[in-house]
Amino acid sequence: MRSFGKRGIHYFQRLNDANIPSQIIENGQNRVVEASLTLIRERAKLKGELLRALGGVIASTTLLGVPLGHNSSFLQGPAFAPPRIREAIWCDSTNSTTEQGKDLHDPRLLTDVGDVPIQELRDCGINDEKLMAIISDSVKLVMEEDPLRPLILGGDHSISFPAVRAVSEKLGGPVDILHLDAHPDIYHSFEGNKYSHASSFARIMEGGYARRLLQVGLRSITKEGREQGKKFGVEQHEMHTFSEDRHQLENLKLGQGVKGVYISVDVDCLDPAFAPGVSHIEPGGLSFRDVLNILQNLQGNVVGADVVEFNPQRDTVDGMTGMVAAKLVRELSAKISK
């Protein structure tokens, strides 16, 4: 699994070894990048124009898939998640109404601009630093089209760094982040990879993109995770104290004095009884209703969100985790759109 997606990178390494002029390779890469961004830009423009023509929309959730899995430290299956989540969103086994009574078939609630073509970009030899910039640019293209607000479908958790960076830079200041996860993902550099899915929130805090970071559902946290949390002033809520913290966490008020609230949901925040299809199975987590209570009761202007780390390759119980991820997307859409 760790070799997934390396074929294209190795191909371009061989071209370099063969003394192919770097300008030829760079020009080709730039064309692919521009084509990738153009498709997202034009789809976002179309959706924005339609919503503005409908009128009366302050904010509309827009799905952007980022099928990236190679920054996972264990399994790379989350790269296959975005299409499976979309399939589950529209599955005929349930209806299109959210718990807040909003209908997903209403284009003012939910639109979709497709996926960042991660594997195609990597096949062209695009490295992670540039890939992160492309993800950020893609999120910004969505945000340029008022009233669209991005809800990113991961992918492993490394995508939260470029997504939050884009939201913060586009809005012109830091946001508050609600991060639901079994792990704090705040290592300085995990296994030598500064873009690891276990390091995304270190990059976010280093960059000054968040004023306040609340991490909820933690139950696999190392000494470094706690030290990094203290270093960055992170509010870390571990599961062994959840019963004591429940009232506070189910009545959060965030985003005052900053540009808004960003929500990042790692599916493994849930106990594996509710969501077994994840790479890192950590017993003792949140129930699905715990998560919905936290999200639905949150007071704040949600300007972006992501749902990450669903691994379809481990979703062996009749697609249950796919439906869980889809339900999270549906309810987040109801929270964001207005």
Automatic annotation (TrEMBL):
Residues that, per the record, bind Mn(2+): H157, D181, H183, D185, D266, D268
* Pathway terms, separated by semicolons: Nitrogen metabolism; urea cycle; L-ornithine and urea from L-arginine: step 1/1
Q: Name one GO molecular function term.
A: metal ion binding
For this chain's UniProt record, which GO biological process terms are given? Answer: putrescine biosynthetic process from arginine, via agmatine
Q: Which cofactor does it need?
A: Mn(2+)
Task: Give the top-rank taxon of the lineage listed in the UniProt record for this protein.
Answer: Eukaryota
Q: How is the cofactor bound?
A: Binds 2 manganese ions per subunit.
Q: A Pfam family name for this chain?
A: Arginase
What top-tier enzyme class does this entry carry? hydrolase
Q: Which InterPro entries match?
A: Ureohydrolase (IPR006035), Ureohydrolase_dom_sf (IPR023696), Ureohydrolase_Mn_BS (IPR020855)
Kindly give the SUPFAM superfamilies that the UniProt entry links to this protein: Arginase/deacetylase (SSF52768)
Alphabetic keyword roster: Arginine metabolism, Hydrolase, Manganese, Metal-binding
* Enzymatic reactions: L-arginine + H2O = urea + L-ornithine
| Gene3D superfamilies in alphabetical order | Ureohydrolase domain
Q: Which EC numbers characterise this protein's activity in its record? A: 3.5.3.1
What the record says about family reads: Belongs to the arginase family. Agmatinase subfamily.
Role of this protein: Catalyzes the hydrolysis of L-arginine to urea and L-ornithine. The latter can be utilized in the urea cycle or as a precursor for the synthesis of both polyamines and proline.
Name of this chain's protein: Arginase 1, mitochondrial
Originating organism = Zostera marina (Eelgrass)
